[in-house]
TrEMBL record, chains A, B:
PANTHER family, sorted: HTH-TYPE TRANSCRIPTIONAL REGULATOR YODB, TRANSCRIPTIONAL REGULATOR, MARR FAMILY
Protein name, as recorded: HTH hxlR-type domain-containing protein
Organism of provenance: Conyzicola nivalis
Pfam families with a match to the protein in the record: HxlR
Gene3D superfamilies: Winged helix-like DNA-binding domain superfamily/Winged helix DNA-binding domain
Matches recorded under InterPro entries: HTH_HxlR (IPR002577), WH-like_DNA-bd_sf (IPR036388), WH_DNA-bd_sf (IPR036390)
Every HTH hxlR-type domain range: 23-121
Cleaved signal peptide residues: none
An example molecular function term from Gene Ontology annotations: DNA binding
Keywords in alphabetical order: DNA-binding, Transcription, Transcription regulation
Length: 128, 128
DNA sequence: CAGTATCCCCCCGGATACTG
DNA sequence: CAGTATCCGGGGGGATACTG
């Protein structure tokens, strides 16, 4: 599996119309690019985290959305949930091997965004 | 040491909390991961396209959302809009250099999603 | 052809309260 | 601590009609 083919769309089978509607890829894309999906995956890419740590790490996320996002990503097999049957409960979240593969593609993207965000939001003219 | 540092978040400057809320990176992330942002950028990564071509290429997008998405991406300096003053009008959309840099990070992601979507939506158990 | 304008609904997602 | 339950408002986003 060569990396060079990663940039050849033809090799991925969505030559004609980017992606057909109602196909699995669209579903996964929606999950990943959901409002908090990327940030959860990025957060877990560094280390496994507990619920409360995730909540504090991803600034601004609500409990509802954290739970919802984690459930979706877990159902997709991207995030692993490990609950200790202790009192008080302790639950650790981490990436599955599949999730790690995905995160490896997300990190360069996020890195680029972090690097260029200031220029982008400022606008081409004003940045100049 | 080439790609490996891409996996070190510290190198990108969002060590502490993934990304601060209300920061430029969040804004750009929201634009890119908007419902149609990724698909528009991917579509334009192969070739510049006219309005109607984009509409047909990105299956399922409405005129309203195509216009909205294009305006956002153009304002961000990621997409270039070139209108010919002819009748009937002809407008070409393409990626700016900045947009191309971004697309180069999006393509591996989309490729991976296309490759693994079937397994993901099927679920780990059933896929097994 | 390349878009606006308009109507309108769904549901995403936030806030708050509560529980094992 | 790690969530669920419930309420609720705004706006994301679809469908249709219209225009230069």
């Amino acid at each position: 599996m060569d990396v060079s083919m990663m940039h050849n769309l033809t090799g991925f089978g969505f030559t004609a119309g980017v992606l057909p509607a109602n196909c699995p890829s669209r579903t996964v894309l929606d999950h990943v690019t959901s409002k908090w999906g990327v940030l959860v995956l990025i957060a877990l890419s560094q280390q496994s985290l507990r619920w409360g740590e995730l909540r504090r790490t991803i600034e601004g996320i609500s409990e509802k959305m954290l739970a919802s996002t984690l459930r979706t990503l877990e159902a997709d097999g991207l995030v692993l949930r490990e609950a200790q049957p202790t009192i008080p409960p302790r639950v650790d979240y981490s990436l599955t091997p599949l999730g790690r593969e995905l995160a490896d593609r997300l990190l360069p993207l996020m890195g680029w965004i972090a690097d260029n965000a200031d220029e982008i939001v400022a606008g081409p003219q004003r940045a100049q």
